[in-house]
Amino acid sequence: MIKVGIVGGTGYTGVELLRLLAAHPQVQLTAITSRKEDGMPVADMFPSLRGHVDLAFATPEKAKLAECDVVFFATPHGVAMAQARELLAAGVKVIDLAADFRLKDPAEFEKWYAMPHSCTDLLEEAVYGLPEVNREAIRKARLIGLPGCYPTSMQLGFAPLLAQGKPLVNEASLIADCKSGVSGAGRKAEVHTLLAEAADNFKAYGVKGHRHLPETTQGLQAIAGGRKVGLTFVPHLVPMIRGIHSTLYATILPEARDTDFQSLYENHFKGEKFVDVMPAGSHPETRSVRASNKLRIAIHRPGGGDLLVILVVEDNLVKGAAGQGVQCMNIMFGIDETAGLMHIPVLP
């Protein structure tokens, strides 16, 4: 059994980790931390876990995280980098769901997250936890920086186009028009996520620059073999609890007009258990992936022209966060990658 600890288990990604790991056939939930809720049974805060999780929250000092095999950080940015070095020295693998180990350039991290990076020596070692792109590196890793929810949808949506030996689309002007449910903002109390503010409303935000942009560009350029990629990313907040719908646009180059893009995507993701390339002309819905680790993609070429439209849906809390973390853990420990993750999406 894999002994698992969770730091910061009181947020939405924390409770998703608990939901997934409690049902994982090869996991023993060993510790979960919260300074504020020290001593409170997890099931008192999250009644959905009654009968499934018997742990109580504890401070990090009491939790004995160094006795775990792997520790997940479901915490605000800046927490994991303060504790990662000590855990790694104790032989514990670390999976961070925040941004501490996503960006390779510490100056970029400080620019977008308004804090200096406190363990830059670990950035080179950290592996970006996108299994469909970095599976072999994840297999050997002891430190994972998990992708953000938006970046997961954008990178997997564009990946088949960029992973070819030569450009198929204008890589300097990719566009991502993305929408997320309010749970993407976390469980903290903020005015813009109040029911009276978010319901019956739809708005863009972060148009000038969103912190997921440098992470996504870094990943896309890596997929493209180092070629420079230009991306315009516009996120939106929609009045639903969970889910991401990303509509991606790419202009097909003249020399690639005869490409069968449907087959390109199907072949690229052939064998991937958590990426579903849907039949041509499909329109995936966010509810078709709710509470699952599945990401669905559909390819469109309106009017048979030179604009390619890629539709991507995922659950921001599962494939966009906790589920992807469990997927990485499975790979790191050499067990079935799908273990604990084959939940059927919830309808309605």
From TrEMBL:
Keywords: Amino-acid biosynthesis, Arginine biosynthesis, Cytoplasm, NADP, Oxidoreductase
Active-site residues, as the UniProt record annotates them: 149
CDD domains: AGPR_1_C (cd23934), AGPR_1_N (cd17895)
Pathway(s) annotated for this protein in UniProt: Amino-acid biosynthesis; L-arginine biosynthesis; N(2)-acetyl-L-ornithine from L-glutamate: step 3/4
The EC number(s) this enzyme carries: 1.2.1.38
Location of this chain's protein in the cell: Cytoplasm
Catalysed transformations (reactions): N-acetyl-L-glutamate 5-semialdehyde + phosphate + NADP(+) = N-acetyl-L-glutamyl 5-phosphate + NADPH + H(+)
Domain Semialdehyde dehydrogenase NAD-binding, chain residue ranges per copy: 3-141
A Pfam family the protein falls into: Semialdhyde_dhC_1
Main location: cytoplasm
Enzyme class label: oxidoreductase
GO BP: L-arginine biosynthetic process
An annotated Gene Ontology molecular function: NAD binding
NCBIfam families: argC
Role description: Catalyzes the NADPH-dependent reduction of N-acetyl-5-glutamyl phosphate to yield N-acetyl-L-glutamate 5-semialdehyde.
Family: Belongs to the NAGSA dehydrogenase family. Type 1 subfamily.
Protein name: N-acetyl-gamma-glutamyl-phosphate reductase
Organism: Noviherbaspirillum denitrificans
